[in-house]
Amino acid sequence: MRATVVVPVLKSRSRGGQTESASTRTPESRLEEATGLAQAIDLDVVNGQVVPVNDPRPATLLGTGKIEEIKALLDERDSGLVIVDHPLTPVQQRNLEKEWNAKVIDRTGLILEIFGRRASTKEGTLQVDLAHLNYQKGRLVRSWTHLERQRGGGGFMGGPGETQIEADRRLLQDRIIKLERELEQVVRTRQLHRAKRRKVPHPIVALVGYTNAGKSTLFNRITGAGVLAEDMLFATLDPTLRRMKLPHGRTVILSDTVGFISDLPTHLVAAFRATLEEVLEADLILHVRDMSDPDNQAQSSDVMRILGDLGIDEAEAGKRLIEVWNKIDRLEPEVHDAMVQKVAGASNVVAVSAVSGEGVDTLMDEISRRLSGVMTETTIRLPVDKLALLPWLYDHAIVDGREDNEDGSITLDLRLSETEAAELERRIGNGPKPSKEDWER
């Protein structure tokens, strides 16, 4: 379908004699992003323009002159769909469709359409359906009148029944309630999965970031997984979890989540909370940023705002968040070198290229360091009847040395966190307790 993208740029009221823009993002970047969103669902964008709006109209958002100008463009380009990169009220949407004689969808409707196409699992479909129904509740407008009012009760004396719109809203609400119940089961299932993971306490590392920041490419680079990774907005929707080993042998779980976006509809944030809770449970959060995008600072602010809405405040984020400055391979050589030098030695920022692999080893070392906490160095001798602990040790400790003894026992030089050292002591303590010499030299 041939589509036209319109980006209204609203101006806020004057403060101190100066007019402040209502958005921190540049109009050009908003137009580029909206065009990318449209192309993500195979729309043919034949025209895109930025429209300054000094006085938003309650009925149409845009002024009469601009509406007529866009109508002429639609006729000229034979465009039957207009995407308005701004929330529209049901009245504004209906009036614009009448004026332009074309289908009109706003930013929320476009994102919902993309999510509807990307959802591949039952959970993702449920979440999108719920968000879509909540969005449609206020937009039920019938184009016919023969069902405007039906009789209720028996005989001619029965009072007027509910209008057709009221019947549709009731049906929608029933469907919403059904979906919410099904999603409650999804939440319970995820809680059970998390409880099982706690019993085998592998740390969880979650990837978050603005859509198309390169999370899935980085995920594939680190884990070797085959997750869909394309230069496309919202290429990944359903979350993916994979086990991976850090450089020193410790096993962690890496989680790739849905990309964030500015003005993410509240319906979606609420519906995808079950998915996003994987981020809340993470021991470490990797905030992936596209440093080749001129608007990356505004994108970062949007991501942090959504994390705050989920309950991760700045203080907590500072303790368990690493900024991953991605796509440095796209930068000019001077900018690239300056950025790498800037982050050298920083504990909370790593510059990488998920495509070329540059900086990924540094990132893995930093993940390992951040997850290790206070490390305890010890040497133990595992007797023959405790050799079943070897896989657990290789998963949860850093094995610096190993010696196979003649009696079948194994001596290991280990580094492990205080928590895991206590867990090891508990596991070994289930059988004959080793002597003090077995624990340390």
Notes on the protein architecture:
By secondary structure, the chain is of the alpha/beta class. The protein is 44% helix and 23% strand. The chain contains 16 helices and 16 strands. The protein has helices at residues 27-39, 64-77, 90-100, 107-118, 122-136, 164-199, 215-223, 266-271, 273-280, 296-310, 314-320, 333-343, 360-372, 390-396, 418-428, 436-439; strands spanning 2-15, 18-21, 44-53, 81-84, 103-106, 149-151, 160-163, 204-209, 240-245, 251-256, 284-290, 321-326, 349-351, 375-382, 398-404, 410-417. A hairpin with a 5-residue loop joins strand 15 and strand 16. The termini are far apart. The model is unreliable at 14-21, 142-161 and 431-441 (pLDDT under 50).
What's the average pLDDT? 79
Structural class per helix/strand content?
alpha/beta
**Main sheet characteristics:** 6 strands, mixed
Q: List the uncertain runs.
A: 14-21, 142-161, 431-441
Chain-wise SSE layout:
Layout: E1 2-15, E2 18-21, H1 27-39, E3 44-53, H2 64-77, E4 81-84, H3 90-100, E5 103-106, H4 107-118, H5 122-136, E6 149-151, E7 160-163, H6 164-199, E8 204-209, H7 215-223, E9 240-245, E10 251-256, H8 266-271, H9 273-280, E11 284-290, H10 296-310, H11 314-320, E12 321-326, H12 333-343, E13 349-351, H13 360-372, E14 375-382, H14 390-396, E15 398-404, E16 410-417, H15 418-428, H16 436-439
Parallel strand pairs: 1-3, 1-4, 4-5, 8-10, 8-11, 11-12, 12-13
Antiparallel strand pairs: 1-2, 6-7, 9-10, 14-16, 15-16
Helix pairs in contact: 4-5, 5-6
Provide key terms for this protein.
five-stranded mixed β-sheet; 23% strand; single chain; disordered C terminus; alpha/beta; elongated; six-stranded mixed β-sheet; 441 residues; 16 helices; 44% helix
